[in-house]
Design goal:
Number of strands: 6
Number of helices: 3
Structural class: alpha+beta
Distance between the termini: 36 Å
Order of helices and strands: HHEEHEEEE
Helix content: 25-40%
Low-confidence stretches: none
Radius of gyration: 14 Å
Number of domains: 1
CATH class: Alpha Beta
Strand content: over 45%
Oligomer: single chain
Largest sheet: 6 strands, mixed
CATH architecture: Roll
Mean pLDDT: 96
Length: 123
């Protein structure tokens, strides 16, 4: 993996995590590709959203930072093959523990974007 690719993949993952903690639409929109899908399980319920729906949900919820929720998010692993990567993230968000798998693509301009987020929370 080129150092520049790894740095950009990590930057996008941290932008996503910061955006989640702050529920910041600007940061989340910058991290996700415009056609990104967000899907997974929270408890026993499956959820599937577009980027627009997901960002709107986070924005409506409001900043987790502002309500005193500590930043408890980390990158667990990164795997890459060519222009595709998967970042595994662990986070405590809005009172739940999540594991997120962020599928990323390297765009034609060389930058990386999240093309799909698959998540799981037992509660």
């Amino acid at each position: 993996m080129r150092d520049a690719d790894l740095a950009d993949i990590e930057r996008v993952a941290w932008l996503y995590m910061d955006g989640m903690h702050e529920c910041d639409p600007e940061k989340l929109n910058a991290a996700f590709h415009p056609t990104a899908r967000i899907q997974g399980y929270r408890g026993g319920d499956w959820r599937g959203l577009t980027r627009e729906q997901f960002v709107g949900y986070a924005a409506d919820l409001g900043s987790r930072q502002a309500v005193g929720e500590p930043f408890d998010m980390q990158i667990l692993s990164i795997e890459r093959a060519g222009r595709a990567a998967v970042v595994r993230v662990s986070m405590r968000w809005n009172g739940r523990d999540y594991t997120d798998f962020l599928s990323m693509i390297r765009r034609d301009d060389g930058g990386w974007s999240i093309s799909e987020k698959t998540f799981y929370s037992a509660t």
